[in-house]
Write a structure and sequence with these properties.
Number of strands: 0
Distance between the termini: 33 Å
Largest sheet: none
Oligomer: single chain
Order of helices and strands: HHHH
Structural class: mainly alpha
Strand content: under 5%
Shape: elongated
Radius of gyration: 19 Å
């Protein structure tokens, strides 16, 4: 937890010129990629399990396989700055390409992207 009297951030008035903030942004980007990979692995495992539990595909849907995996961070100030700086305000967890790839995985279509 950051102390209330912590002031090192004051040394970085410009984000692009501050190694500390740049390092944090790179860390966040790396963690987002890890989350995307782990999410994909979870969907793949759920899909394989669903094939054993529901071979007729009567009650387990793609929506079921995708449920509970979204953890929005968009309301976090640091994540908002990360999105603004790295992705011009876009959320990499919501990009069409990423969402579509998760839906394909939930349908059993693995292109080994993750």
């Amino acid at each position: 937890m950051i102390r209330d009297d912590y002031t090192d951030w004051d040394e970085c008035p410009e984000v692009n010129e501050c190694e500390l903030i740049r390092s944090f942004l790179e860390l966040v980007d790396s963690m987002v990629k890890d989350i995307q990979h782990l999410k994909a692995e979870t969907i793949k495992a759920r899909y394989r399990l669903s094939q054993n539990l529901d071979p007729e595909h009567q009650w387990i849907s793609s929506v079921d396989l995708l449920s509970g995996l979204d953890t929005p961070h968009y309301d976090n100030l640091a994540y908002q700055e990360y999105m603004r700086i790295y992705y011009d305000g876009g959320d990499p967890m919501s990009f069409k390409e990423h969402v579509d790839s998760m839906v394909r995985l939930a349908k059993g279509q693995d292109n080994n992207q993750y």
